[in-house]
Amino acid sequence: MTSHNKAVSHSQYGHLPLSTSGPMPCAISGSALLRTPYLNKGTAFTSAEREQFKLHGLLPPNVQTLEGQVSRAYKQFKARNNDIGKNTFMTSLKEQNEVLYYKLILDNLKEMFSIIYTPTEGEAIAQYSELFRRPEGCFLNVEDLDRIEADLDPWGAPEDIDLIVVSDGEQILGIGDQGVGAILISIAKLAIYTLCAGINPTRTLPVVLDVGTNVPQLFRTNYPLYLGLKRNRVRGEEYDAFVERFVRAAHKRYPKAYIHFEDFGLQNARRILDKYTPELACFNDDVQGTGCVTLAGVMAALHVSKVKMQDMRVVIFGSGTAGTGIADQLRDAIAVETENSKEDANRQIWCFDKPGLLLKSQKNELTTAQAQYAREDDEWSGKGHQNLLDVIKEVKPHVLIGTSTKPGAFTEEVVREMARHVERPTIFPLSNPTKLHEAVPEDLFKWTDGKVLCATGSPFDAVEYNGTKYEIAECNNSTIFPGIGLGCILSRARLLPTSLLVAATKALAAQSPALKDPKASLLPDVTEVREISVQIAKGVIRAAEKEGLNRETDIPQDDKEIEEWIREQMWDARYRELQKVDADSADAHAKGEAGTGSFLRVG
């Protein structure tokens, strides 16, 4: 993953409030400096810095480089004998030295991504109360409603927070209800924002909304370690009032902050997103991120197959949060591209779930998100609609997407039937983890005589068919949601409507390797994501300007200049020169009071 050299402030954009080049003001010294993760350099403090900040005697005398520290930390990482041990080591490193933590991951992204995020982070969340060492992030609970405003205040002045990730812990990473342990998914998601889009970690806030848990073993009387509220989950009006109080307080305290809702339950995720989307810039990765990255893969596949979007027919197998989120993004893109209504665009999408094809007559069984994709019963009178094969025979889709968690659901018969009717079948088995995939790429190539255009929800090795090697795209949300957030933050977007998401998706699709080589991956690799995030952010910013949603007005209009402007405001994992400043005139960052790892924060 590339990083840009900002050792010297850019003359043109170094003055920006979010600039991350040039010297870094610092008002603390001695042990306090060494205990502040975002200012600490450990053994890499220079001789001059050791003298100026009173570090002599607190460090071994040999001055190290960041590269040397990374080498040492990597050896320590490898010495851990299991993934959860490696995850715990990385958490400890982050609490000591943020630059070293992020640099270590960036240098070993393929190896470490699954350790700091899914699936290992899921295991860490499940063991949160057992592994707990020190708190990080903001803990809000439904029994202290009147404390929400006060509990949000200490995290910075109104201008200090750019991004808030919040979870209520009901549907964590496929492992379900984890109660207060959800703070770790908020923390992990913010780490991905920093790694993939350069969001400054000291300007972010992870939040958990503790509304109880429906997992009895977490609060049983003989399990005293659980750290959250020991009660069943709050529902209904009390739950909605809590979420409302949080959103209003967060938006009031940090009016320019972008809010990311993460891992809310099926009955709440879409409902909450729909409620607040018309009011502030907010996002839900489960609903929108999966849809956006899948749409980008579909756009690239349409380019290869030479099918126009207005002619595309799509079957989505599995219509939960992810499936309907994908349907939404496809529908919105079709509507934008064809200038037709969303209702017209809906007619190009067929959604399938447990009852079979979604039909109007199932209205009492359908969620709000599913109901808009239900087909008229008359259309299917006398036709089979309760198994996937019958639907494929009738619809003859160009695109088949799986979010069902039903392994092997895309059988040879289903795939061959699809391939009979379209020249280049586009098939995306997206269910996670790998054991739940609807089909494996190797079989898809065999059953379509090598014609399939494929993307998956987990990493797969390239497939060799008839002597040709085909790269398999991974629909990894991390290639798109960080760039969307970066674009909203830098433009200070008031809202995040469909038009901005479509712009982001087009920007990702434009980076598809398959546009240059049809045998290549439909989507770029996550290791290239920082530069991809620049392009996505640019697309979001331009769309925000077009819609009049940007509150930042001093945005360069030249394409090359805006890219430099974006990069200048992306945080890098490198040590910056520290500049001694007086505490009386210093801001919270210089005084070591910023970021979730601060030991010096004052309320």
TrEMBL record:
* Malic enzyme N-terminal domain location: 94-277
The record's listing under Pfam families reads: malic, Malic_M
What SUPFAM superfamilies does the record tag this protein with? Answer: Aminoacid dehydrogenase-like, N-terminal domain (SSF53223), NAD(P)-binding Rossmann-fold domains (SSF51735)
GO terms for biological process, alphabetical: malate metabolic process
**Sorted UniProt keywords:** Metal-binding, NAD, Oxidoreductase
InterPro entries, sorted: Aminoacid_DH-like_N_sf (IPR046346), Malic_enzyme_CS (IPR015884), Malic_N_dom (IPR012301), Malic_N_dom_sf (IPR037062), Malic_NAD-bd (IPR012302), Malic_OxRdtase (IPR001891), NAD(P)-bd_dom_sf (IPR036291)
| Residue ranges annotated for the Malic enzyme NAD-binding domain, each copy included | 287-545
List the Gene Ontology MF annotations in alphabetical order. malate dehydrogenase (decarboxylating) (NAD+) activity; metal ion binding; NAD binding
**Which annotated residues bind a divalent metal cation?**
262-263, 286
User: Which residues make up the binding site for (S)-malate?
Assistant: 432, 476
Q: Is the Membrane keyword given for this protein?
A: no
Reaction(s) catalysed by this chain, per the record, are: (S)-malate + NAD(+) = pyruvate + CO2 + NADH; oxaloacetate + H(+) = pyruvate + CO2
Q: Tell me a GO cellular component.
A: mitochondrion
What is annotated as the active site? Answer: 117, 189
User: What's the family?
Assistant: Belongs to the malic enzymes family.
User: By what name is this protein known?
Assistant: Malic enzyme
